[in-house]
Amino acid sequence: MHTTTTLRVALVNNMPDSAFVDTEGQFAALLGVGPGQGESHRVSLELYAPPERLAGAGTDPAVGSRYRPVDELFASHPDGVVVTGSEPSGGDLRGEPLWGLFERIFDWAPEGTGSLWLACLAAHAALAHYDGLRRRPLPSKYSAVLEQGVEAGHPLTAGIPSRVAVPHSRANEVPTAEVAAAGYRLAIASERTGWTVATGERGGCLLVAVQGHPEYRADTLLREYRRDVRRFLAAERDDYPALPAGYLDEAAVERLEAFRRHAESDRSKDAPRGPGLVAELPFSEISGRLEASWAPVASRLGRNWLATLAERASGPHVPAGAPARPPAAHPQGRPAEPSRPPATTAMTASDRRLPSAAAS
Prior knowledge:
Blueprint: E1 5-12, H1 17-30, E2 41-49, H2 51-54, H3 61-64, E3 68-69, E4 80-83, H4 99-112, E5 115-119, H5 121-131, E6 136-150, E7 163-173, H6 176-181, E8 185-190, E9 194-202, E10 205-210, H7 220-233, H8 250-265, H9 283-287, H10 295-314, H11 349-352
Parallel strand pairs: 1-2, 1-4, 2-3, 4-5, 5-10
Antiparallel strand pairs: 6-7, 6-8, 8-9, 9-10
């Protein structure tokens, strides 16, 4: 007789007002939350956010009412937790507004949940906290749909082709070699373009560090590009943003390059650029033609993660009935020493070997 397992998954949504609701929808879709979805595992998605996010002027009160204060997470014991990132504010991770919250989650997780899915900034923060790895600023923002290799034997990549293309949108990176040397398995990675998914055990918790964005919708990179163009036009940045690589067809590139030439020709030292000009960017025309070619990969990653949560919930990985003790907040002004607990399972030589390099 087939049985459907109900898994409790917490989403800690740290995104600003402009992306708050969309981020919730992206991860709900990745986890198969909704009518008619969830073939083997039913997901109870529990929503949490920092108080400053819920108090944001742009957050719809009806949306905010679905969320709980993030402090309540630490009295819970979900099967898994998704921790979103946010747009980085500077170079030093410990100077990020979310660093204190990240530390509390990372201190609690080994006994508080079976797994953390860590998105972008949260992934970099976890590598700094647990392993002392430092992110490195890139010369310019990396916005692209990157082709990378897949480790065939990894539990999270079951049913995924040997090569996949996944969106990336980041201003920093943690070098692939350092992630592997710290004991993480590289589920999706390339020697040339970095890594997308890496996993490691910390205590009783499986860390799924995701430097890419498999959850993105078809037009998310285009929306971010439009936001960066608006900032250029408003003189909030000096350089015009580069087009996302490997994402747009030739016609879209031509239209957006024509708009760039128009926008830059309007610029002068004595005249404002005029953020209203962004209304002329052919967003609707281009977004209507975009397809999320990576969606099947994202869906499979989500299902495989849920299968892993179900296995761990029924096995010895998560302490049965262990109380989830809320961690104390770190004192302000004292940088936490990075803790370095050993990985539960040592990596073999084949685990450390990178998937094949990207072709482009």
